[in-house]
Every structure is written in structure tokens, then in C-alpha cells.
Amino acid sequence: MDAAPNKTMVFGDRFPFRYMTADYGITYYAAFLGCSAESEASFETISFLAGKLAELGLKHIVALESSDGKLAKTIVTNSKAENVEVVTMDSLQSATLDDAAGGATYLSVMEKNLEALKIALS
Known about the structure:
Blueprint: E1 8-11, H1 18-24, E2 27-30, H2 43-56, E3 60-64, H3 70-77, E4 85-89, H4 97-101, H5 106-120
Parallel strand pairs: 1-2, 3-4
């Protein structure tokens, strides 16, 4: 991650990756701390994250694989940032036996997360 041009990410969803940001020195802004059970982000949270996207000139916002991406899209819509894309990371919280039978492993999911992280920090 040392080579990443950007060291900040906006997470428009639950946030189960705090360990990762701490390990790699990534600054983050998230709609919810951890895997919060809150069902709705406040207006203030959406406004704050939308402002961060624009202020920092970020081109990506991150959402979880189990999410419909609605919150991330709402943040993007309310931001003055242009051409922002939603990037998906997998928390493994919704992994199924079918996923495993289809060849998904912890390592393969984390490799996909690494690729998503590279995009989010570009």
C-alpha cells in the first residue's frame, strides 16, 4: 500500500475493515463504525461523507458485498465530486456453502479485496 497514490478511503456502508486500515496506515471515513446494527445513516453522516469525497477529490467509495450499495450511491449523488465509482469489498459475513463449493476460499476473497483496495486508493 506504500505505492498507493491516495491513503484515504470513504466507506459508504458498515465498516468491518478497521483492522486493515490500522495495519496499513489508511485514513478512512465510514457511514457506520464497525458492523453497526443501525439501519439508516443520518443526514449529517451522508452530508459529511459527500463533502469528504469532494474535498479529497476521491474517485471511489467502498461498499460491502452484502449491501445493495444504496447508501454509497446516495453519498455520491449528494457530493460535488465527479465520476465517483462504487467499489465492493467482501467482509465474508455473507459467505455461503455454495460460495465455498464454487471455489471461494478465504485467500481468494482477500485477493479480490486487495484488488478492490488498490482501486479505492487510486
